[in-house]
Every structure is written in structure tokens, then in C-alpha cells.
Amino acid sequence: MNSTTLTVRHSSPGSRLTDLFWKKPGLLIFCLLLPPLLWLGIIYIGSLFTLLLHSFFSIDEFSGLIRYEFTLKTYAELLSPANFDVILRTILMACAVTLAAALIAFPIAYYAARYANQKMKALFYLGVMLPLWSSYLVKIYAWKLILAKQGIVNWVVEGTGATFLLNSVLSLPVIGGNSLAVSYIGTFIVLLYVWLPFMILPVQASLERIPESLLEASGDLGAAPKQTFRLVILPLALPGVIAGSIFTFSLTMGDFIVPQIIGSSRRFIGQAVYAHQGTAGNIPLAAAFAVVPIVVMIIYLYFAKKRGAFDAL
Amino acid sequence: MHSRKRASMGLKVSAVCGLAFLHLPILLIFLYAFTTEDKSYQFPPPGLTLKWFGVTWNRPDVWASLQLSLEVAAVSTLLALILGTLCAAAVSRAKFFGREAISLLVILPIALPGIITGISLRSAYNILDIPFSTFTIILGHATFCVVVVYNNAIARFRRMSGSMIEASFDLGASGFQTFRYVVLPNLATALLAGGMLAFALSFDEVIVTTFTAGQQQTLPIWMLEELVRPRQRPVTNVVAMVVVMVTFLPILGAYYLTRDASSSRN
Description:
The structure holds two protein chains of two kinds. By secondary structure, chain A is an all-alpha fold. Chain A has 16 helices and two strands. The longest helix of chain A is centred in the first third of the chain and has 34 residues, at 81-114. At the A-B interface, α2, α3, α5, α6 and α7 of A face α1, α3, α4, α5 and α6 of B.
């Protein structure tokens, strides 16, 4: 009886395949993994590899064509004062945006994690997810409307008579400018706005994981609420902050649209990549510029992993 | 834990201010779609009108780029659904060598800045002499959409108990039947949520697309053009508002589909 059912089951190729996969689970996993690995391996890793390859080529000054032979000349060009300024400016901006994002995100995450009830929590979650997922360009466009000459900021400033305040901020060296829309302050605000939501959720997750009993113990041992916050909550929330900072830092560093639309004419890495590959046709230099954020992120991720940020993701 | 202490005033104010900072700029888009002013971004609007909705409706360039965006998003989502589900199935089923590496590989396209994915693809197309087309846009989009599907699917796979699949086999179901009647129904809402998010991600993507699109315009590329060189502000205002509403729907949908899953886990 048993043998007849077995022969019946073995008759169709589909069930034979089922049996094969059942006997050899490794084969099934191999077959499952093959398409995604081929896709990501060839298209993504392959492309990353050609990017790396291009960064070791150079551009011929006379013909403007790419010379396909190994050289470190293009990387040396990165160190020229003008290009190095671009790199430094971008990294400083990424640091500033990350710090500000952590400062603004913390109270939101803290409230949602510690004080919000189930219903409020859902509201907070959507309140972060909707701006996070809503259109990147529309968000930038909104700030173009806000910072425009006839826009809402100037309307409020003139209405409240705070013109002198805005002017004194804009007259600051380096970060100031003719108006908010063409200054580093403007670029900073918009980058902060666009990437802030990515900071909130990891911080909230790490705060939610702190057991209440730990805070009670701290209080029982005589710590004032401020001490508990500084000595217990903050260190335990740090991995979440670092996890969030991976996103804000990386995304700010690669952004080329925000500084192009809101900001001074001074370039960021993303703009340099875009400009060099586009009109200039200098893909090697663009590639070398693109390698900078990759290297910075690898170093950043290494230290983040050391601080346990990956468990907080 | 929640009601034992009340939040201090300072905390409440800064949390509310932070959320307001996130939401008010988007609300402003809705106001501007109705403004009568068409030469500047004047605030407050001198008057309100519905005229620009009609004007936008009759713009062939907007329709063309909308169509391209929808096509790209649909095909990319389909590809991402297949690749992401396969990958999640394999990674969740067994511990094997290189599992961590595969997770990293899937996440990398969105963990690294979009400009790197963009310039990488651009340099690969350059070396292989591939001309720009809808196909080259889709290649890029599908690559970074995989992770969204993957994340949703793997969370569901982990909660699905392996004994159910074994029971199905014991009861005589074939591999296909088990997939069709046991795995898929359990997976469906997670895939729908992941697919919606992937669609929203692709529909809105601009950074990678600027490197892979050539002369074609997706809707975000059309908007970017308008942002850099504003020519028809009222039409852009209306398009911006429509884009906000179109992207909100899949996000809300995905939230409601995965909500029960996350609340039952906590």
C-alpha cells in the first residue's frame, strides 16, 4: 500500500521536484537565492565595481576622452584645494545635520516611547512615516515656497518686525548670504527637514527597549530624574541615535538636489559627481568623488558596529 | 508605565514642535495648489482658484511623464516582489554561511547614498555601451526596491511556523500546493504592503533616475526640471499636491496591512 502511494506521487515531475527539495534543503535554498543574488551581484555589485574601476582611469586633457589605463592621477585631483573644500564642506554639513536631527528627534522619540498610549503611539508612528515616505522633491519644493522672496518666512518676518534679526543672521560670515534660499543656513534647514524622520524611529526603538525596572532601580538608589536620564537613559539610547545617524549622515552626504535648489553656488560632493559625469563627461573624476562617501560610510559603519548600533536597527 | 508619570511641559512642547516642523511644510503645498498667483510664490495667496487643475489636466507632458513613472514603478515592483520574496524565503528558512552578507547586499542599495547607485549604473552603462531607455531606469529601480519587499517578507516568514509547511507535506500536498494554499495566504498581506511601499519608492525616485534616464522624463524628473528652472509654477503646484496624495495612499495602506502583525508581536 505504502509503496503504491509512493509510486503515484513520484509519477509527476512536480512532485519529484518536491521530494528532491525535501531531501536536500540546501538545494532549495540555492534555487531560491540564485535569482536575487544574480540580479544584485551582476547589476549592483557589478556596477559598483565599474565605478571603482573608472576612478582609477583618467581623462585626457586634450581630447576629453577617458583613457582606460590604471592611474592614481584622478585621486590626486581630489586633493586639489578646490576639490578638497567640496569634500570637507560636505562632511561638515553631514555632521551638522546629523547632530541637529538627533536633538530634534530625541524629544519626539522619547515622548512616543515613554508617555504615549497605544493610540497616541500609532499616531506618532504615522506622524513620522508619512513625512518619511512622502515625495522627496515635493518636500524640497515646499521649502522653495517657504524660503522664496515673497514666501511665508519673509511674510512672517516683516509682519512681526523681525527683519533686523533675520538680517543679522544672514550677515554672519560663511553660513550667511543674500537670503535664506541662497545660504548654507537654507541648505542646512532643508537637509535637516528631508532626513530627520530617519532618525526618529531607531531612537524610539532603542528607548522602548529600556526596561522600566531599570529606571525604578535608578530612582530607588537615590538618583534624581535628571541623573537617571543622563546616566541610564542616554547611554542606553545611544545605539539608537547612532543607528539613526547612519541614515542622516549617509543621505546628507550623497544629496545633490537640495544644495542645487536651496543654497549658495558652492558645491557639495553629490553636485560634483553630477557635474563631472554630466556636461564635463569626466566620469573618472565623478567616480573618484563618489568613492569618498563610500569610504567615509565604511569607516562610519565600522565604529557604529562597535557601539552596538546594528542591534538597534 | 505610561500613566505613572506625566510628561513635562518642555518635553511635550518640543515633541509637538518637532512633529509640526515635519508636517507644516507639506500642508503648505495644498494651499499653493489653489493660489491665483502664477508669477511668484507669494504668501499669503492673493486669491484661491480651481483653474490650475483644469490647466494641468490638459498638459500632455505631465500625462506622458506620469505614464512613464507608473510603468517603471509597476515593472520594478513586480521584479522586486519576485526577487525580494525569494531572498527572504531562503534567508529565513535556514542558517547558512554568508547569510549576513546577503542581508547586507540587499540593504546596500538604499544604505549607500542614491548618487552612488546612480553613478555606478551610469558608469556600467558607459562601459557596456548600453543606450538609455525605460529598461535602464527599471534596472536601477528594481535594485533598490528589493529591500522593501525583503524586509516585509522576512518579518512574516519569521513568524510563520515551519511546522505548518511540514504538516502540509505530511497531508500529501505537493510543493506547489503547499506554496499556493499555505505559504502564499500567510504571506499575502506582507507582500501587498511591501509591494505598495516599493511602488511608492519607485514612483518618487529621482536621484538614481537622473543618472539612468537619458532623455526620458519620469514625473519626478519633470518636477526636478521645474524646481531648477521654474516655468509653470501653478502646474507644478498642482502636480506636487497630487504626488503627495498619491504617495500617501500606499503608505497608509501598507500601515494598515502590517499593523495587526506588529501589534500582536509586541
